[in-house]
Amino acid sequence: MKHPKTERTLVIIKPDGVQRGLIGEIIRRYEQSGLKLVGLKMVVPTKDFIEKHYLINPEWRRITGEKTIESYRKNGKKPPSDDPIKVTEVILNNLKKYLSSGPVVAMVWQGMHAVGIVRKITGGTEPLTSDVGTIRGDLTIDSYEVSDVDGRAVRNLIHASGTPEEAEAEIPLWFSEKELLNYRLISEAILYDVNLDGILE
Ligand code: ATP
Ligand code: MG
């Protein structure tokens, strides 16, 4: 079994994060968690690339559609369609426009529970309802309702892999093997060493 400290996750700072001047603040939050940055670059993705990215998980269309329909119902509103696949078709088109509109920052973070820790720090998909203290909850203001009326994707600053399996599929799409660095951070000792015998002189 691989050591838990080798878990990796993909994070994308979306074009609104870059344009709002939040690159530094967002990186700070992940960095302070204790996770290790092992890959970093700035790119302008094409629409085809974004489609590939989202469709890499064969369940994504269904899950995203169901999540959206449930959110409409919870708010006492009628969803645009009862078919999750149809709902996601519109979302995917809007996402392609949104994410190819300008530079994004792509990163790979590594460490124990990297996927879960990053999702927690990032917050829920819809900024209106994502928790206070999270990136999406603190630093932006969008909602499903307004984005749907305007016919655009929810602008929520970040993409973060949903599961370790999703991360393992997404990372090679964005980074070549040699763009991901293997190195030790001094601070990892206090997170992972079992005996902590290197501190006292
Ligand atoms: P991401 O995958 O970007 O980290 P997520 O996993 O929280 O976000 P998904 O359900 O995978 O959310 O949706 C991907 C992205 O699509 C969201 O981040 C958001 O920008 C957009 N999106 C999702 N659902 C909707 C919706 N109902 N209306 C508008 N945009 C949406
Ligand atoms: Mg997702």
TrEMBL record:
GO MF terms, alphabetically ordered: nucleoside diphosphate kinase activity
Pfam families in alphabetical order: NDK
Protein's name in the database: nucleoside-diphosphate kinase
The protein's required cofactors: Mg(2+)
Span of domain Nucleoside diphosphate kinase-like: 6-182
Stored CDD domains: NDPk_I
EC number: 2.7.4.6
